[in-house]
Amino acid sequence: ASAFGDSSSSSSSNGGLSSLLLHYHAIRTPLSPITNNVASALLTIIYVKTVMEIGAVIRVKYGVPEFSRKFVHFCACSFVIFWPLFDSSHWGWRLNVTVPAVMSLRLLYKGAILKDPEDEDVILLSRSSSPSELLYGPLQMTSIMCYVGLTQFMTPTGIVIMASLVGDGMAAMIGIQYGNHKYKVPLGGEKQKSIEGSIGCVIGTMGGIWLFAYMCGMMAEVAGWKMLLAYGCISALMEATALFNWDNFLLAVAMQISAKHLPNII
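Given the sequence above, the corresponding structure tokens read:
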């Protein structure tokens, strides 16, 4: 059972949102699968809209682009917590990628065609107000979300991939605030990492896996401190050594491979 209740039933109420509403007596009869899934998708849209608004406030209040970027980054990774709300018995579960699919098209348009440095998404999601930046980290993120939401829905692999991106964001935040012990990485040019940031990546990945697994009712598949620590260390290693501007993509690839083979090793 997930944090939203048991959604494994084969009845018409096996949509997590429908079960949740029935449990709290918000509705009297179960939602149809398509209604359940459309409503769940709408909730993700409201969630992301709220996140973007808060991110804009953070950008204005603190004046540090990385803070607002990573806030949006963390919240984007967390879209998996909505998975249990969808009814997997109906094709509409694929609507879980509605937001990242739309955002991918939006980022492509604004980064490659519009190229307006004053655009709200450019200001919020880039480090230097350069529209082309939308085509790297942000677009990689939304593309990974689409891939995971369509091919790794409600799987341990999907959870591990998205949790590693939590670790990636944590590495940046900890590195900015507390990164006093610097080191250079291969193929990184002048880019420096910090020991504190790498430790943050390990902790962020482990915490992300635990939280997402708990919310999705898959603790048994990924639980165990050895497994969590191994995923955290692999995530930190890839975050530190990945090619500049391609870290999200390479991190996702590495974690998918790890999720396939690591359970057979540990």
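DSSP finds eleven helices and two strands in the chain. Try to locate this feature in the token string yourself.
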